[in-house]
Amino acid sequence: MLSKRLIIRLYFLCAILAFGIGVCDFMYTQENIMAILYSGITGIGILFATMVWSLMVLPNPSFRFKAPPLGITVFALFILYTLAIIVLMPKGDISVVVRIIRMSMHVLLVLVMVGTYRWYSVNEMSLWEKRCIVVVFVMLAITYLRVLLMCISNLQLEHLGISYYLLFALPLAFLVKQWKWKILFIVVAFAIILSSMKRGGAAALVIGLIVYFMVYLKIRSYNIIKAFTILVVVLSVLAAAFLFFGSQEVEGERMTLVERFENVGQDGGSNRDRVYSKTIDMIASQDGIGWFVGNGYNAVLVDSTIHYSAHNDYLEILYDYGIIGLLMYVFFTLSFFRLALRLTLKKDELAPIVCFQFSNFILMGNVSHIFIYMLMALVVFTYGLGQGRMRMLAEAVQKETEAQ
């Protein structure tokens, strides 16, 4: 007969897989082309993941109550605030079903953050949990390929933003210790980012890997000369791979990825200069109430005369949710940075992973969007995991002190 603890562990494995299903579901709905080619996706996967994760925060004897870190508390308050805005101040023609799915997604973010924090406060990550995370990585890759093939078969060639999901899933896949698997995951993520022709994703991947290797070498206390040599080799390999594959012509594309980087000055970063300018003008011209409480969910997209999102999380949140929302989101960002720094100073094995994810978070949040997509779910999973480890380390020190 299965013990109660084993049943709980098995349930957490199922929760990780449900998490993957929810993220994959949103990947389908995120691309505009899928609304035409695959209208069957309804957000049920997100609702399913939310229901599964809701049980992870129920009272449990193995989880001793302790006030969570301030970063988790503030993020939870931020989510509550966004839920109120979605209910009371929706902008545009948003159906009730879409609002329910969006609200479920926001609730899921809190559940995943709190659930992973509580679990890893008292549990080391097991081999099977790492394998489940790898399964999620594979699920995301398959979902991307399926959308890509559907676009190609219908002659709809687009720069698929859902390639970013592999960028944000890569740090979690690095929980597997064997380097042969890490290299394979890098190759898969690199190939998918290049196939999407996304300059921001390619730059973030290279920078994130550099951050990962630098922190990895630091916590391993490598010889400086040896560490520098390894870093130079890694950078050379990444640069060579990017130049080779990024110079390959893609059928239907006018420019290669390398040429798109060279053209960034002419196209304003895919017209981001124009988008940023318009969003800043909208923010500057709003009234006092709008400054503090925001202009409503989806307001940037609806109010902008060019009908583009801000392509910057902080500008988007400031206009939609006001200074109140922005301050809470900035506090979470600073908390994330502090977590990465503390783990690095402690030379914990999670430090390279959390630093890699923070690099993704801060870079992509300033040139694209994370919070309005399920990319944020991968971020809060990493954050909850890191905060859980910090609590476990703190309690271990406390026990040693009490024993002396």
Strand content: under 5%
Shape: globular
Kindly state the percentage of residues in helix. Answer: over 70%
Distance between the termini: 40 Å
**Radius of gyration from CA coordinates:** 21 Å
The average pLDDT value, as a whole number, equals: 84
How are helices and strands ordered from N to C? HHHHHHHHHHHHHHHHH
SSE class: mainly alpha
Stretches with pLDDT under 50, minimum 5 residues: none
Number of strands: 0
The biggest beta sheet is recorded as: none
Total helices: the number is 17
How would you sum up this structure, described in words?
This protein is mainly alpha-helical. Helices cover 76% and strands 0% of the residues. The chain has helices spanning 4-30, 32-37, 44-54, 70-88, 96-122, 127-153, 164-173, 179-196, 199-219, 224-246, 257-262, 264-284, 288-293, 299-303, 313-345, 351-367, 375-403. It is globular, with a radius of gyration of 21 Å.
Write the layout of secondary structure elements.
Elements: H1 4-30, H2 32-37, H3 44-54, H4 70-88, H5 96-122, H6 127-153, H7 164-173, H8 179-196, H9 199-219, H10 224-246, H11 257-262, H12 264-284, H13 288-293, H14 299-303, H15 313-345, H16 351-367, H17 375-403
Protein traits:
404 residues, mainly alpha, 17 helices, 76% helix
In short:
The relative contact order is 0.13.
